[in-house]
Design goal:
The complex is a heterodimer. Chain A is of the alpha/beta class. Chain A contains nine helices and ten strands. In chain A, α5 packs parallel to α6. The longest helix of chain A is centred in the middle third of the chain and has 15 residues. Chain B is an alpha/beta fold. In chain B, strands 5, 6, 8, 10, 11, 13, 15, 16, 18, 20 and 22 form an eleven-stranded mixed sheet that branches. A ten-stranded mixed sheet of chain B has the order 4-3-7-9-12-14-17-19-21-23. In chain B, β3 and β4 form a beta hairpin. In chain B, α7 packs across α8. The N terminus of chain B is likely disordered. The chains are: A alpha/beta, B alpha/beta.
Chain lengths: 249, 494
């Protein structure tokens, strides 16, 4: 379970998150929607531990452990996965090698046995097949020369292979055509289980037609101003953010 | 253990005890006194029981060296080297000479193991035959301070007609070959450090592959500087006759010392018609500490001559050590359709300075060369690629492709690229590509978010950057080189 209480954070002297309260119980998928500049990406970076963000107040725990005290790789080993809005290119680093190194680093940290190359490839190929992705995905260098859609698909493949307990998807739907959107949604839906939870950050309601959330939260001005069921997403789509923001003010 | 401790103890005794001249019989240690003069040159030659022609050659080289000046064009800075404050010959106490690797210092063997060379070899020494289809073993020559301590697989190689032995031995067993080729690629007066080496070279490896022979195993030399205040001047000569092939590996280490140690080696390669030489180096000399104290001064002349048509020489180097690296493995492409290759990874951290690159001299028609250089700078180091591509008048259809990439880690290091291209033939084609990049914070964060530690992330990104070079290394070396890169850069980020 992810529990965020009164979280305040920003860059340099600029406060962006102004007291976030949010609970994502294990097994649930929550969506965070909000206008540009509301702090959506900042929230995902603060939760995953990116340098440069200063936490000035509040707390964030995952299964009772203090997330904010952990190094990014420790959070990853604890089961937190961030699907990046802009996945990063790693020239010369093969996707399979990258993923196996990452998976084994996590397994080592958790005291689990590492996978050898054969075991890993068998598992990875099965995931690729399940996600209807191209076989060469593993052979290519991490995100190098990938189209925008391929990069997002690669994020979903990584998530499927690393099997996190909590996935944060930071606008994974941006720039995707409808086919790619379905692949991303299928990837998340396939992981849905009583032990998996997700925080789906999105600008548009469209993705939520495919990943139906248990709860929807509206983030504006660094605070969650409204929460509701999946129907809230439709309301936002119909009336726009301005109406909800005005109503909350 | 014996050799190391004894050498250390003896050297300590010799240097601290104000030992004056000649070789001490009391301590049974072969060690020349500090300083360089004609007598020292004679002494080295005498200790090795060399023929008169070689002594002559050494003395000529010494005379040439005296008239030369230390080159100053490289982008490296160091305190002046006091050439009179070095020992020019130091050898571990001579016993009967090791019969097998078992008699060689275990610390030395452990170092081998680190370099990944002789694992299979040891198994064979222990009586384990290689299984069908297994990769052939590696034959190793170990040069410890000034002398070669062990050469393995001599018999197997001899059956194939391959000669692989210390050059000091080849002088006696194959004098005609040595006389014919020594100094034929790097003349004694070629440059300051080559002249010095020619005067005082201690030992090194000699390889001869006769006509049509494909060397049945990788050959490897492992160099180690051990004694204090000692210069190491090894000399390697590899000759491959028509249609022959050899892959040769060298590994280098030195212990940690506060003072700088001089290493000035010469490597000469000769490839005749249709011959191929693949020469790989993993250089890990002591680089000095974080403040730039100590470390090896590595001034090396490496050159290969593609004398015959369709011959090929390929240099691959992974350079992570040395306080100063001054090294330009080169190819003289004399034969028509001959091929020269240079693949290099040079890593500098702390206060290390590397000025390295290559020369490709195109003389024959349709000669081709490829240069791939990857420089990685971290800390307060300086990393320079310096290369020359020269196309001579008759080199019709010559082609060169050069790629120089620099990767910067942190904001206090430097990367420099100094490519010279001289073309005297209008039909020649040369290409030069260069990039400079930094390890970006978002790359590191991306890796860490997936579970990699900061250091593993740097290792992964750096190895990705060097992939084009690492894939040229023989497999055993490539794996070790990857580890070495990661270890060299430990603590350089964050």
């Amino acid at each position: 379970m992810l529990e965020i209480k009164g979280l305040r954070a920003g860059i340099e002297d600029k406060e962006i998150l102004k007291g976030i309260d949010l609970v994502v119980p294990t097994g649930e998928v929550h969506a965070i929607m909000g206008p540009n500049g509301s702090g959506k990406s900042t929230l995902s970076y603060v939760l995953s531990g990116r340098d440069g963000y200063e936490v000035t107040g509040g707390s964030a725990t995952f299964d009772g452990a203090d997330l904010l005290e952990m190094e990014p790789e420790v959070r990853a080993a604890a089961g937190l996965f961030l699907a990046f809005q802009y996945p990063v290119e790693l020239p010369g680093v093969g996707n399979a090698n990258f993923l196996r190194t990452a998976l084994n680093a996590q397994r080592r940290a958790r005291g689990e046995a590492e996978l050898d190359a054969v075991q890993f490839l068998k598992m990875a190929r099965a995931e690729i097949k399940r996600l209807s992705m191209a076989d060469d995905m593993l052979k290519r260098n991490v995100n190098v020369g990938f189209s925008g859609g391929e990069k997002k698909r690669n994020e979903v493949l990584q998530m499927a292979i690393l099997r996190p307990k909590l996935a944060i998807l930071d606008e994974t739907d941006s720039g995707l055509d409808i086919d790619a959107l379905k692949i991303v949604a299928d990837g998340v839906n396939a992981l849905r289980s009583p032990t998996f939870s997700a925080l789906v950050i999105t600008h548009y309601q469209r993705l939520l037609d495919y990943i139906v959330p248990d709860r929807v939260h509206v983030l504006a001005g660094g605070r969650i101003i409204r929460s509701g069921g999946p129907e809230l997403a439709h309301e936002l789509e119909a009336n726009g953010y301005a109406a909800v923001v005005a109503e909350a003010a | 253990m014996a050799a190391v401790t004894e050498t250390l103890d003896t050297v300590a005794a010799v240097t601290e005890g104000g030992y004056k001249w000649g070789f001490s019989t009391d301590i049974e240690m072969d060690m020349a006194p500090k300083g360089l003069n004609e007598d020292i040159v004679r002494l080295i030659s005498e200790r090795k029981g060399e023929p008169a022609w070689l002594l002559e050659w050494r003395l000529k080289s010494y005379a040439a060296w005296l008239k030369m000046e230390e080159p100053s064009w490289a982008k490296v800075q160091h305190a002046p080297i006091d050439y009179q404050d070095l020992h020019y010959y130091a050898a571990p106490k001579k016993k009967a000479g090791p019969k097998s690797l078992d008699e060689v210092d275990p610390a030395l063997l452990a170092m081998y193991e680190k370099l990944g060379i002789p694992l299979r070899e040891r198994a064979i020494l222990a009586g384990v035959e290689p299984e069908e289809g297994e990769r052939p073993p590696v034959a190793v020559d170990a040069v410890f301070d000034s002398v070669s301590v062990a050469t393995t697989f001599k018999d197997t190689l001899a059956k194939a007609g391959v000669i692989f032995c210390p050059i000091s031995e080849a002088v006696h067993s194959h004098p005609d070959l040595v006389k014919q080729y020594l100094g034929s690629v790097v003349p004694a007066g070629d440059n300051y450090f080559a002249a010095l080496n020619s005067a005082v070279f201690s030992d090194g490896s000699f390889v001869f592959i006769p006509k049509g022979v494909r060397c049945p195993m990788e050959l490897s030399t492992y160099f180690r500087i051990n004694a204090r205040n000692t210069g190491q001047f090894e000399r390697t000569l590899i000759v491959v006759e028509d249609g022959g092939y050899v892959s040769y590996l060298e590994g280098c280490t030195a212990p940690q010392r506060d003072e700088n140690q001089l290493h000035a080696a010469v490597v000469e390669l000769v490839a005749m018609t249709d011959a191929t030489i693949k020469y790989s180096t993993v250089q890990n000399w002591y680089p000095g500490d974080a403040d730039g104290k100590g470390g090896i001064y590595n001034f090396v002349t490496k050159r290969g001559a593609c004398r015959g048509a369709r011959s090929k020489i390929s240099w691959t180097q992974v350079e992570t050590g040395s306080a100063i690296t001054w090294k330009y493995p080169s190819c003289i492409l004399q034969g028509d359709d001959s091929v020269g290759e240079f693949y290099s990874v040079a890593v500098t951290t702390n206060r290390q300075q590397a000025d390295t690159g290559t020369k490709m001299i195109h003389i024959g028609k349709n000669t081709r060369s490829t240069i791939v250089s990857k420089g990685i700078s971290a800390g307060r180091s300086d990393n320079t690629y310096r290369g020359l591509v020269r196309i001579m008048k008759n080199a019709d259809g010559a082609r060169n492709f050069t790629q120089c990439d620099s990767l910067l880690i942190g904001d206090q290091c430097g990367a420099h690229t100094v490519p010279y291209i001289e073309s005297r033939n209008p039909t020649a084609k040369t290409e030069h590509e260069a990039t400079t990049s930094k390890i970006a914070d978002d790359q590191l964060f991306y890796c860490r978010q997936r579970g990699l530690s900061q250091e593993d992330a740097v290792g992964l990104i750096v190895n990705g950057f060097c992939k084009d070079v690492l894939k040229e290394l023989p497999m055993e070396f490539a794996v070790e080189a990857q580890k070495l890169l990661a270890v060299s850069l430990e603590g350089s980020v964050g």
